[in-house]
Amino acid sequence: MRVETGTLPLPSGDEVRELRVAQGLGVSELARRVGVSRSSIWRAEADRGASAHLRRLLGILLTEERR
């Protein structure tokens, strides 16, 4: 999948959490799929200290999972 930087809106912490829960993914499973630590996922969901790059990765992954 080719994604150009800046073409996807970054998900908010609430959107990351809602999409993850809707997919039935635990924090550990999502962290494994994205290749980051669980604490990175928690920070992204809390929307504090999460990098834009990580939120973009999560948004792409969860959007693909939803299809």
Can you give a write-up of this model?
The chain is an all-alpha fold. The chain has a single domain (13-66), classed as 434 Repressor (Amino-terminal Domain) (Orthogonal Bundle), CATH 1.10.260. It has four helices and no strands. The protein has helices at 13-22, 27-34, 38-46, 52-66. Helix 1 (13-22) runs parallel beside helix 4 (52-66) and helix 2 crosses helix 3. The longest helix has 15 residues, at 52-66. The radius of gyration is 11 Å and the shape is globular. The two termini are 14 Å apart. Mean pLDDT is 77; it is low at 1-5.
Order of helices and strands: HHHH
SS content category? mainly alpha
The portion of residues forming beta strands comes to under 5%
How many structural domains in the coordinates? 1
Mean of the pLDDT scores? 77
Shape: globular
CATH class identity: Mainly Alpha
Report low-confidence residues grouped into runs of 5 or more.
1-5
What gap, in angstroms, lies between the N and C termini? Answer: 14 Å
Number of strands: 0
Radius of gyration computed on alpha carbons: 11 Å
What attributes does this structure have?
about 70 residues; mainly alpha; 434 Repressor (Amino-terminal Domain); 4 helices; globular; disordered N terminus
Give a short overview.
The chain has 4 helices and no strands. The chain has helices at residues 13-22, 27-34, 38-46, 52-66.
